[in-house]
Here is the input.
Amino acid sequence: MPRILIGLLFAGSVLLLSNVSPALAQEPDGTVKITRRFVSEGVGMSWGDGVLTYKGQDYSFTFQANGLFRDVDIGIAAAELSGQVFELKNLDDFSGNYQKVEGKNTESGSGSSATMKNQNGVVVNLVSTVEGRKFNLSREGMNIELKKLK
Here is the structure.
């Protein structure tokens, strides 16, 4: 009887741990920070610049998103969005169209957060770093493109 109980406990533990998001259980491969953004009021089109920090180096990127800052605080500053990057094995995999991972967009009194993933499997957990500042990732997602190195 004790062996069966121990076996069931072990199996249950394995199942529980397998449901934990890998992004929560591992160290990030890099970080991102939105450094500058522009918004077309009414339309909700957002675009701007950011920095990816990967393997100790900074890489500039541009982004474009539909509705990212629509119906949110228009006073939001670009540097108030940052995040962690997971599953980035190759720098070239960072560019692409990021879609919101279902059930991973949250809002609270302290701000917003969203988990998004691109076609290369790269995952970014984006957060508002200032209390009360909110953003919204639409179904069109966010297009990110690394700037060419000089």
The two ends are 68 Å apart (CA to CA). The first strand starts at residue 30 and ends at 40. The first helix runs from residue 2 to 18. The chain has one domain: 22-146.
